Amino acid sequence: MLKVNFSLILIFLGQLLFSQKILREEYILLYKDIAVEEMQRTGVPASITLSQGILESGSGNSRLAKEANNHFGIKCHKNWTGRKITHDDDHKGECFRVYDNAEDSFRDHSNFLSQGSRYAFLFELSPTDYKGWCRGLKSAGYATDRNYDNMLIKIIEEHQLYLFDQEVKIQPKIAEQTTTTPQIVKDVKPTKPTAKTPESTEIDLYGVKGGQINRIDYVIAQKNDTWRSLTKKHNKMPWELYKYNDISREMSAEIEQGQVIFLQPKRRKADRDFRYHTVTEGETMWSISQKYGIKLKRLYKLNRMEADQEPEVGQKMYLRKRKPENS
Fold it and tell me: Is 99 found in the same domain as 40?
């Protein structure tokens, strides 16, 4: 009687499944939700995340994706303290990050772009301007391939990934859908709030109350919070929170309960809904910069003011375009 070695069969089936290639359409279905979540959290367009994941990981089939859950080819760099893997890239035996799962890779990719000064200019673009993002990534040196931007654009357009960047309930065309092409208005833009001041729905962010202003993560300072305790709580370098909130170490004061503390760099201009702000009693340049998530130096520059000046009550502060010469 023939004896069957079930353990060998299981090993064979496992190897067979592991060797099967993931199709682009399957990759999109697997990771579209996390890409959209990351867009809502950090402002990185979902089309950019998905197209980079497809290109950098070969739709999840690369060695880095399979063995390290690294879908974006992010190298170790000096601040990485997690597990590592060596892989031949531009040079032999380079160090790459290892993640516990693919979702962690997607989140780290969003943080890598949104918290790095090299890519800060990208967040001044509309999240629906996927071509601008692709060209910006190339110019910022994300990859060494001279055709990197065009490769991303081709993937986005072939699979209509740009639809994930818009507030429309239409899925990109992928193999599992019917062959009927939906009627799509490509110029649909997300509906903007009508509020005159930036407001953010408070959420449970990093274990405390927080949210986003101008697509920047922040937390609300609690009783007894200090710069040191927040630095430790949110796993930041000692200088980061000072820099993100335009505070020098020498001049830093105690944090007040209820104060907004940014966990990411502020932007060069306010959200497009807020072109200017009229100063009220007690407001300072710093408080206005925190209110709208604008870098303090940039706010001074937009309004043609000296670094030690403070605004007057009733003054019109420009938040996006520079104050005219003759005004």
Answer: yes
